[in-house]
């Protein structure tokens, strides 16, 4: 008796966009009932591979077999029909429709002829309820999707995948927009699916998660398969080494911790009703202070309040020597403060502008030749060239390119660069490494370290405790709008900080 | 190589100008007199005001807004100028000051209307569509009320000469367009305007004065309306409370054809000016052929639709050209 | 850059070449451009046909342009006529002021231009205007009504519907009305002067109000027959719509001579109307154009005396009444 064919088998997959080849001869096997983790830096080809499997892209060479049979989908609908379900990173639901409607949009149970028949609402609702139960959601199928949290929406997507009896489920960075709690629920569901023998491919930047849930892990680098091996054959270091192609000594920069005495930022009793209350903080020159907390603890709000983006009712903020009254971003910038916001898509990037423009936009005055505001192209170009070296922007990036075409890591580097060019004495960073691959993360940590070494004070907000532990001199914990604990010296106790953030 | 320069030619602002030129040449055999000096002068008379109006509208469109009141503003400025400069007016009749005071009053009116629009949108937070739609009705009503719906004539010769004398209008409009283009594309203020239009939240984070920038765009649009009013009133030799009332669609079409995005953040003055030229060239050629009004409107709509589709195609080409794999 | 400059050079040089071939050519047949504001009312439609017939009989080809009430457009249309090399222009000005630059443009191009039915504003321009003698016509029409009133005896309360005062014709008609009523104060009292701005709704509303304030109005003059539907509607609402012979017949006079007026005169509801001799005006316009072309002397203003059509003479005058011809055409359909 021959062994059953693998759920998916890819052989010699090649893919090019025009002249650029992004996948070189990739072989991958997803055994039946197993979960395969796929990791790699941005640009390594993971998303491309997933898009090929999901029917969004054709291949240039190679073969794919789904359950032993030839698989060459003509489009996403075709892929779905073949039994491949794609859970996108960007959720693909219609926000204004109900869960049931989203489920059955293309295949409503009906009475009568297909197009003109009446939708059987009862049946629709019952079947939706069934699948919602399978993923552990108790919502009414008529709930409008827009009212659900990110995590719940994701579970709905998974339920939808299950409802079409997917042979393979593809997960693309599923935890990016989930809280820890929601991520935990997702992992429980994945464990259940694994128990039921569901074959899955799981892409994530979070190596710990991948090591936890996947049976096998494959590493891609520059469009080549480095190695596919069983989970036991890997650990975090080995994974990073395979992804990056060299040994990374340490993710975090080494720090000279001789403290400087000048206080760069002093916050007293800062309050914004409904968001945070009575916040006291200080940052010294050359110091990196971390702010940890759960989503909703008020950390981003505090940064925005300090920077003058949002209103505060009471409290004082001192930058350097002086008190800053009536804070506005312009005023704070003049005092040498910079703010990197949490969501670069929402309020960081000028998406259709060039890399050059995005680099220079916070500092245009420096390139203005005269009082009329005429921008000197040479001055700006010179500054941009210096900046791209400083932030180690990928050499393949052209300066007149639209910034939205860059990878997340490169985008973040540009936005950090836009602030660094002003030599700020205080850097406020909100989730500086969100959605960025390991290689770029390391570079950003390096940049932060360099800034601190040069004398800037840094205040970093992050939801990744490991990041703060590796990077910071001091950590502050927030919960429900208040600063609840401070940890002024290394080494940090991970559990203690977590507890402070969660329970108090 | 050819492909690269072809796509660059396609994407450049000059593409629209080239299109207008090709269209003129193509239609010339079918339309006698199309390229005659007389007709080209007529074309300039219509195109220059439209170019100025398209410039103003582009600035506002780039902030993600729109100015529907611009044509009513033209009418109001015309009427106010007429009331001051007309021989029938007691105060300044016949005096050498009549014209300069009248012109200044028109510019001031345009700027004031723009300021009110800008304040309502930027500080008041009212959607631009609403503010300027109401403005359109109010200003038009005001203009009609001021004149009891009769046009005002007997304007100073010096004023009328702005449109009548060859080259004067051009000498006024061309520098305005050039300055506008340069400000938008090469100065800090222009960079701010583009940024505000693309992502106002991000603009605020980097310290750009968002409200002030939006307001200035509307004021500039108001001044452009006044300038166009000067040209159109001089051409008609009378101030009319319904001046320019049918131009709004042409203005927006000119901007869009010129590459301005209705969502904000993208557009050039050069493109808008060339778009205006294309719209005028098409209208003029169809009028000369002697088609009835209805057919002209249909044909013009079809041509503008084609140009807009071409612009959409250009955008996709732009996205592909700039994107990396 | 290369392609762009190539393109622009090509455009410019080709343009220069075409410049010479594109100069205003004259077609073999002489053409006249006729520019009206609208063809929506019978008067204008009939006028246009009359002009076309007259022009074609003299061997001209006619180019038509309708400006839909837009003075700016009218100016552009006339300028386009000049580009197309017409030999003459006949225009019904939208408004007396804004037609001036159009006339000037025609003068500059040496193309004769005639204003039909509406005079332009004073100014430094050359044109011939053919216009009805609205004052005299209104006066004579109202005089007929006065005569009817005198014969019938009794006291009369009069109302006049006034046209758009920006229109010189409307002003003259009002003056004619006043002139005819001079000296009749002993038995005719004017109780309502209704401004209509040449608008049906305003006319109706105004007359309804007047009838409510003065229910005994029995003498009405309208500055234009196109308002007759509003008048009949308002009178019917007050139960005052009766033909001649009925004790409560309201004396009704108008001006223009359209099909409605003609029919109402036939039926007896209307007593008289001043007819603009449309055929005369059209013929005179073309004659003036020909004289201007031949550089013969011609008066700047040609008056159409018109005539009054009423119960007693409508059979003989029907032939010259444009409204009667339209009426007959409508009956035939």
Task: Tell me briefly what this model is.
The complex is a heterotrimer of chains A (504), B (325) and C (333). In chain A, 33% of the residues lie in helices and 25% in strands.
Q: What's the SSE blueprint?
A:
The complex is a heterotrimer of chains A (504), B (325) and C (333).
Chain A (H helix, E strand, L loop, with lengths): L7 E10 L2 E11 L4 E5 L6 H8 L7 E6 L2 E2 L5 H7 L1 E4 L11 H6 L5 E2 L6 E2 L1 H14 L15 H14 L4 E5 L7 H16 L3 E5 L3 H7 L2 E6 L2 E7 L5 H9 L18 E10 L3 E9 L3 E5 L6 H9 L6 E6 L2 E2 L5 H6 L2 E4 L3 H4 L7 H6 L16 H14 L17 H13 L5 E5 L7 H16 L3 E6 L2 H7 L2 E6 L2 E6 L6 H9 L2
Parallel strand pairs in A: 3-10, 3-11, 6-9, 9-10, 15-20, 15-21, 18-19, 19-20
Antiparallel strand pairs in A: 1-2, 1-4, 4-5, 7-8, 11-12, 13-14, 13-16, 16-17, 21-22
Helix pairs in contact in A: 4-5, 14-15
Chain B lengths: L1 H10 L2 H14 L9 H26 L7 H16 L12 H25 L5 H20 L9 H8 L3 H19 L1 H11 L1 H6 L4 H27 L11 H10 L11 H21 L3 H30 L3
Chain C lengths: L1 H20 L9 E6 L5 H16 L3 E6 L4 H13 L4 E4 L7 H11 L3 E4 L11 E5 L1 H19 L3 E7 L5 H14 L6 E8 L4 H14 L5 E4 L5 H10 L13 E6 L2 H9 L4 E4 L2 H16 L7 E4 L2 E4 L3 H4 L4 H11 L1
Parallel strand pairs in C: 1-2, 1-3, 3-4, 4-5, 5-11, 6-7, 6-8, 8-9, 9-10
Antiparallel strand pairs in C: 10-12
Helix pairs in contact in C: 2-10, 3-4, 5-6, 7-8, 9-12
Molecular structure report:
The complex is a heterotrimer of chains A (504), B (325) and C (333). Chain A is 33% helix and 25% strand. Chain A has helices at 46-53, 76-82, 99-104, 121-134, 150-163, 180-195, 207-213, 236-244, 299-307, 329-334, 344-347, 355-360, 377-390, 408-420, 438-453, 465-471, 494-502, and strands at 8-17, 20-30, 35-39, 61-66, 69-70, 84-87, 110-111, 118-119, 168-172, 199-203, 216-221, 224-230, 263-272, 276-284, 288-292, 314-319, 322-323, 337-340, 426-430, 457-462, 474-479, 482-487. In chain A, the strands form 5 sheets. Chain A has a 6-stranded mixed β-sheet, with helices on both faces. A 6-stranded mixed β-sheet of chain A has the order 18-19-20-15-21-22, with helices on both faces. In chain A, strands 2-1-4-5 form a 4-stranded antiparallel β-sheet, with no helix packed on it. In chain A, strand 11 (216-221) and strand 12 (224-230) form a beta hairpin. Chain B has one domain: ABC transporter involved in vitamin B12 uptake, BtuC. In chain B, helix 3 (37-62) runs antiparallel to helix 11 and helix 5 (98-122) packs antiparallel against helix 6. In chain B, 57% of the residues are buried. Chain C has 333 residues and is an alpha/beta fold. In chain C, 47% of the residues lie in helices and 19% in strands. Chain C has 12 helices and 12 strands. Chain C has helices at residues 2-21, 42-57, 71-83, 99-109, 134-152, 168-181, 200-213, 228-237, 259-267, 278-293, 314-317, 322-332, and strands at residues 31-36, 61-66, 88-91, 113-116, 128-132, 156-162, 188-195, 219-222, 251-256, 272-275, 301-304, 307-310. The relative contact order of chain C is 0.12. Chains in contact: A-B, B-C. Chains B and C meet through helix 1, helix 2, helix 3, helix 11 and helix 13 of B and helix 1, strand 2, helix 3 and helix 4 of C.
């Amino acid at each position: 008796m021959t062994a059953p064919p693998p759920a998916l088998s890819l052989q010699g997959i090649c893919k090019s966009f025009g002249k650029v080849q992004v996948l070189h001869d990739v072989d991958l096997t997803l055994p039946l009932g197993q979960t395969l983790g796929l990791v790699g830096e941005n640009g390594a080809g993971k998303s491309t591979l997933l898009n090929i499997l999901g029917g969004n892209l054709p291949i240039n060479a190679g073969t794919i077999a789904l359950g032993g049979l030839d698989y060459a989908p003509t489009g996403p609908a075709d892929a779905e029909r073949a039994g491949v379900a794609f859970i996108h990173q960007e959720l693909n639901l219609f926000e204004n429709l109900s869960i049931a409607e989203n489920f059955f949009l293309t295949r409503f149970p009906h009475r009568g002829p297909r197009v003109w028949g009446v939708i059987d609402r009862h049946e629709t609702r019952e079947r939706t309820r069934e699948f919602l139960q399978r993923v552990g959601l108790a919502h009414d199928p008529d709930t409008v999707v827009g009212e659900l949290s990110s995590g719940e929406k994701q579970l709905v997507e998974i339920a939808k995948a299950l409802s079409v009896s997917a042979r393979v489920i593809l997960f693309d960075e599923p935890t990016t927009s989930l809280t820890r709690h929601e991520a935990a629920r997702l992992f429980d569901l994945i464990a259940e699916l694994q128990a039921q023998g569901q074959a899955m491919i799981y892409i994530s930047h979070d190596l710990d998660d991948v090591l936890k849930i996947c049976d096998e892990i494959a590493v891609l680098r520059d469009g080549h398969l480095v190695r596919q091996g069983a989970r036991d054959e890997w650990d975090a270091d080995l994974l990073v080494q395979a992804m990056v192609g060299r040994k990374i000594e340490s993710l975090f920069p080494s720090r000279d911790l001789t403290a400087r005495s000048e206080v760069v930022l002093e916050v007293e009793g800062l309050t914004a009703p409904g968001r945070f209350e009575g916040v006291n903080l200080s940052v010294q020159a050359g110091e990196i202070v971390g702010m940890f907390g759960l989503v909703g603890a008020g950390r981003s709000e505090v940064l925005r309040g300090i920077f003058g983006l949002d209103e505060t009712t009471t409290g004082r903020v001192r930058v350097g020597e002086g008190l800053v009254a009536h804070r506005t971003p312009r005023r704070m910038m003049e005092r040498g403060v910079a703010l990197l916001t949490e969501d670069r898509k929402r309020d960081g990037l000028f998406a259709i502008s060039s890399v050059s423009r995005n680099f220079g936009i916070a500092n245009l005055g420096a390139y203005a030749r005269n009082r009329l505001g005429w921008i000197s192209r040479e001055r700006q170009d010179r500054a941009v060239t210096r900046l791209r070296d400083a932030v180690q922007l990928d050499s393949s990036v052209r300066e007149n390119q639209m910034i939205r075409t860059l990878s997340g890591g490169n985008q973040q580097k540009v936005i950090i660069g836009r602030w660094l060019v002003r030599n700020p004495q205080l850097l406020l960073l909100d989730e500086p490494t969100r959605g960025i691959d390991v290689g770029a993360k390391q570079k950003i940590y390096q940049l932060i370290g360099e800034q601190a070494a040069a004398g800037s004070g840094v205040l970093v907000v992050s939801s990744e405790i490991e990041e703060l532990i590796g990077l910071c001199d001091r950590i502050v914990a927030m919960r429900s709008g208040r600063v609840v604990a401070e940890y002024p010296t290394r080494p940090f106790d991970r559990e203690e900080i977590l507890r402070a953030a969660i329970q108090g | 190589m050819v492909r690269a320069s072809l796509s660059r030619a396609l994407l450049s602002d000059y593409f629209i100008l080239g299109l207008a030129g090709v269209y003129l040449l193509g239609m010339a055999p079918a339309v006698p007199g199309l390229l005659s000096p007389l007709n080209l002068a007529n074309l300039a008379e219509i195109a220059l005001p439209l170019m100025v109006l398209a410039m103003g509208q582009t600035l506002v469109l780039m902030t993600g807004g729109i100015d529907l009141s611009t044509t009513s503003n033209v009418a109001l400025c015309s009427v106010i100028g007429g009331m001051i400069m007309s021989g029938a007016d007691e105060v300044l009749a016949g005096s050498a000051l009549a014209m300069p005071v009248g012109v200044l009053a028109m510019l001031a009116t345009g700027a004031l209307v723009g300021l009110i629009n800008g304040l309502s949108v930027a500080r008041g937070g009212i959607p631009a569509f609403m503010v300027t739609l109401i403005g359109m009705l109010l200003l038009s009503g005001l203009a009609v009320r001021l004149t009891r719906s009769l046009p005002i004539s007997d304007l100073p010769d010096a004023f009328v000469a702005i449109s009548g004398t060859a080259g004067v209008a051009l000498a006024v409009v061309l520098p305005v367009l050039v300055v506008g283009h340069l400000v938008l594309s090469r100065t800090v203020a222009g960079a701010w305007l583009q940024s505000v239009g693309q992502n106002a939240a991000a603009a605020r984070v980097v310290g750009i004065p968002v409200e002030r920038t939006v307001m200035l765009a509307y004021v500039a649009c108001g001044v452009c309306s006044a300038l166009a009013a000067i040209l159109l009133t001089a051409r008609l030799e009378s101030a009319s409370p319904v001046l320019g009332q049918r131009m709004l669609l042409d203005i927006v079409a000119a901007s869009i054809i010129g590459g301005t995005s209705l969502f904000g953040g993208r557009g050039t003055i050069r493109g808008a000016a060339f778009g205006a030229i294309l719209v005028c060239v098409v209208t003029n050629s169809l009028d000369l052929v002697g088609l009835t009004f209805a057919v002209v409107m249909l044909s013009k709509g079809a041509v503008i639709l084609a140009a807009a589709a071409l612009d959409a195609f250009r955008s996709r080409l732009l996205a592909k050209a700039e994107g990396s794999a | 850059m290369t392609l762009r400059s190539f393109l622009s050079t090509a455009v410019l040089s080709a343009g220069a070449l075409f410049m010479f071939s594109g100069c205003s050519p004259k077609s073999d047949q002489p053409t006249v451009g006729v520019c009206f504001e609208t063809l929506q009312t019978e008067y204008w439609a009939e006028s246009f046909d009359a002009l076309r017939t007259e022009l074609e009989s003299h061997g001209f080809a006619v180019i038509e342009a309708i400006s839909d009430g837009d003075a700016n457009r009218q100016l552009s249309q006339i300028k386009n006529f000049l580009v197309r090399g017409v030999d003459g222009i006949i225009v019904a000005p939208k408004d007396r002021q804004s037609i001036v630059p159009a006339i000037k443009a025609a003068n500059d191009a040496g193309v004769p231009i005639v204003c039909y039915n509406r005079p332009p504003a004073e100014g430094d321009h050359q044109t011939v205007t053919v216009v009805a003698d609205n004052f005299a016509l209104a006066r004579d029409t109202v005089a007929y009504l006065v005569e009817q009133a005198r014969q019938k005896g009794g006291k009369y309360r009069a109302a006049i519907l006034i046209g758009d005062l920006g229109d010189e014709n409307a002003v003259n008609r009002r003056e004619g009305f006043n002139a005819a009523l001079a000296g009749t104060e002993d038995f005719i009292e004017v109780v309502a002067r209704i401004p209509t701005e040449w608008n049906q709704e305003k006319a109706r509303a105004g007359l309804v109000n007047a009838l409510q304030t003065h229910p005994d109005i029995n003498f009405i003059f309208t500055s234009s027959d196109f308002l007759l539907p509003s008048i009949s509607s308002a009178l019917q609402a007050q139960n005052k719509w009766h033909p001649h012979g009925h004790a409560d017949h309201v004396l009704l006079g108008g001006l223009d001579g359209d099909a409605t007026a003609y029919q109402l005169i036939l039926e007896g509801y209307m007593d008289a109307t001043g007819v603009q001799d449309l055929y005369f005006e059209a013929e005179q316009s073309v004659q003036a154009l020909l004289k201007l072309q031949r550089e013969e002397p011609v008066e700047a203003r040609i008056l159409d005396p018109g005539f009054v059509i009423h119960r007693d003479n409508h059979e003989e005058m029907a032939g010259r009444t444009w409204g009667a011809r339209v009426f007959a055409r409508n009956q035939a359909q």
